[in-house]
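writing this on my phone so excuse typos. first protein, seq and then structure
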Amino acid sequence: MMNFINKLSKTTIASSMVAASVLGVSNISHASGSGAGPGENAQGQQGQDDAIAFGNTKNPKNVIFMVGDGMGPSFNTAYRYYKNQPGAKKMNPTAFDKYLKGTNRTYPNDPKENVTDSAAGGTAFATGHKTYNGAISVDNNKKPLKSVLEQAKEQGKSTGLVTTAELTDATPAVYAAHVDSRDKKDEIAQQFYNDKINGQHKVDVMLGGGSKYFGKENGHLDKKFKKDGYDLVNNKTQLLNSQSDKVLGTFSEKDMPLQIDAPSKNPLLVDMEQSALSKLDKNKKGFFLMVEGASIDKAAHPNDVTGVMSEMSGFEKAFQNSIDYAKTNKDTLVIATADHSTGGMTIAKGKDYKWDPEAIHKMKHSGMYMTKEIASGKDPEKVINEGYGINFPSKQMDKVKQAAKDLRKLQKEGKDEKDPKVAAATTKLQNAIQKPINDASHTGWTTNGHTGEDVNTYAYGPGSSKFKGNMENTQSAKNIFDFFKNDVASNQNQQ
């Protein structure tokens, strides 16, 4: 019976691959295993395709670890409201809901703070050790801590980092660098190139923002990677045409634009993830891939609900794509969680028991985008009219104009964005821009920083039961280290 299942599994996978190549699509999935879409059972029992796909695999050969940076539980709930029809008496699940396993405790090991940042949070689920805020995979004595990506590379697996932030930002950095401060981004990029395992660069596929840290100002690291066989890409077309199994893709100078604001030449998170999978899955020994929806956090810091929902949508697409991949690659584990929550978002505020995502759906641009445009000198009224899809009160427009005027005065004095006065003035402008959509949608916020609640963990595939219940955020890494230690190639890959 098991031989039959193995043969059927291989036949199904091979057929899917042939169909995908004929149709010119790169995403391989079972039609009956596309996850929890609208109208599907949120509790969905494993279907027949799942049973065939997994056979008797105990330890995953491949791990896709997904980080919704800043994605606290209120974000997951709000996104469910956002996807459903207004006034729905029964809400259809999101792609995440079916795979909820448990929650993570996010606190760091910091002498002054008990709410984590992304560096300490990332270090915890990359290395299995809690540390101080700002640390990039070093302990409290600033000694290096081994990451699961490094373990994967030691075992001959392929590795990848995909993010909508800079590749040198905290979450991707913790997997392949060891520095005492997340702010040392030039050094992080240099370690990506200089630090090797078994004579090879640690990361085979690097896709995200942050081109400035790989270019002329930091020793032309991009050209050095190219010399070592990496494709260099900077737009969606180049990414699709990339032939090498190793690639460095930087699609913006710093963080990538939010999905709602991005130019069509930019790949979305799901595009980057799919490209990474197409390269990494050629390795018969397996792979480790980290995929970060970084801009959920980037939008939550300025309390930009439009940006947050845009990025939740992008992260959900990437999550569903990873589930589809796992359903046709039986030894793949998918985990999705968050490092912390951001902004203290509440679903409803004030006296009304109401949250209105329809107002958010009408928005044409994020508040972050409009703030940046106005800060660069563009006419506030024109930017607001082009970006808002709901009424913007005239009195509030006056406040936006005044905030823009105050910011420009500081800019004319030669102060840059790092100056505290400029930062405060920019925040004032952002808040003035954001108020009408937060009011119209009844979205509340408590902070421009992080918050300390437990975050949700979602998982699918062999080993997913290890993520059940309330756990320390370090347990994710401990589980992955254990899986890789006990990794046994499936029958399919022993042929």
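second protein below, same order as before
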Amino acid sequence: MSSLYADALLFVFCTISIQLRVCTGQNVDTTPIRLAVLAPGDETLPFAMHKVVPAVLYAVQTLARQGGRPMEVLHRDTECSSTYGPLHAFELYNSGLADVLLGPLCPYVLAPIARYSSVWELPILTAAGQNDNFDFKEPHYRLLTRMNGSYSQIGMIFLQVLKKFNWEVVALLFHNFEDRTIGNSDCYFTLGAVYTALGRKSFYKDFDETNKAMNYEEMLKEVSQNARAPAFSQIVQY
């Protein structure tokens, strides 16, 4: 369990409690707040269920010892599926089992559930959602709170670095899946925000790092030819 993540959750939960006037000990509502954790059960993932739930329970138990409003925690395995993840969200909403959703953590699960949440008036707290698509709160993502910032901030950092060194010609090189049925990679979403920040005019090239037949020499030659200027060149690889 990550103590940093647990402490962050503790701060967020206490903020919710203050807004509900229950951290002060005055007008305490004893009805439990129902927290629903939506995360994948795949233990190989950094945000797997068995890693997230203990941090949530730690934060809830700490608040309970401090006299805060009681909270109940339940969880569902989204399987990182854009089909099964939203189905679990529908089940929670229709059954009236959740007041707050924690997660989802997979982007293709988060996107549809975050759009439904605005209709359901059901807030979402997530450590995911860095994609710059989620930067626009209205009309679809107004109840989405991201605890980890966004990739668009990386784009702004790149602009400052380019300005510092007076670089103007940039090529983007990043890993993405050839099999588009599994969606795009985190590298795609990260440099997608950089591409947007650069004005959507930079050359870019994607490759599948799992493809053993990949000709890296030819790829690098192509990228270098599109990242050259008389005095400088720069390749951004992710």
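The radius of gyration is 21 Å. thats all i got for now
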